[in-house]
Amino acid sequence: MQQVRPAPHDPAPTRFQFRVQRWLLTPGIRFLLRAGIPALVVFMATSIFLASETRRTAVVDRISALRASIEERPEFMVNLMAIDGAGEGVAEDIREILPLDFPLSSFDLELADIRELVEGLDPVKSATVRIRPGGILQVDVTERVPVLVWRHRDGVALLDASGVHVDVVPSRAARPDLPLIAGQGADTHVAEAMDILAVAEEVSDRVRGLVRMGERRWDVLLDRGQRILLPEEGPVQALERVIALSEAQDLLERDVEAVDMRLAARPTLRMSDDAQKNWWRIRHLDENGQ
Question: Nearest-CA neighbor of 74 among 157, 134, 148, 163?
Fold first, then answer.
């Protein structure tokens, strides 16, 4: 009798096993098995650990202590502040607005905020703030340069070339080296005032200042009570005409109170009372002589 041999084992997976293997090889399931489940386990373990308020407090204290041990290392400590480029008064103002209690950690300093505070001072045009080696807070300041004295209803101030307020002075006599402007709104037309003063350089020894009239135009004040009334449009060109007339005919050396250039086509002279009396007297003599 012939013996029947069993069928050989088929290594191929069953249909169910094949589908499971295909499902496990999809990108989403592979990512879940590799990262999602471990992350979930860690999250659950951490949540269980931090569920206790005592353990939470201990962790926070530990982190705070670790951070403090790093931030308070000697190489991170700032011991003093150095200010360069500022005058004595500005330096005192900077120290006053930055009440820093040294030594302190460089991690506690917001350099951008410090720079913003320093640049908020009127005399400061720009500033840079950095921490130098050796634990020094370095503040480099560029001050505004005053070019004009501005007299207005609230007092006397110094302005830079952009019309920005620089400082307050007790009186015009505090800065006799700077030209004077006056009037409401004069600070918003500093560039034009500087152009006018540049033209008036020919008679600078006689110029007492510029006055903004009605916030629209300028008057040039000279010694001996003389005044040049400039137009709203083209004041520089109008003053150039007056200077040219003065050089050719000694206009400003005569007994004239005001030169009115507000109407470019018809300049007008206003003579003093004595000059008018003399003129009428001479005219009367001429008429009687005829």
Answer: 134
Angstrom distance (rounded) from CA 122 to CA 164: 8
Query: What are 102-161's pLDDT values in tens digits?
Result: 888 887 888 999 999 999 998 999 999 999 888 899 999 999 999 999 999 989 999 999
Please report the domains of the chain, with CATH numbers, ordered by start residue. Answer: 74-143 (3.10.20.310), 148-284 (3.40.50.11690)
Strand partners, 212: 218
Closest CA to 239 of 181, 288, 177, 193: 193
The pTM (predicted TM-score) of the whole model is 0.66
Residue 222 phi, psi dihedral angles, 5° rounding: -115, 170
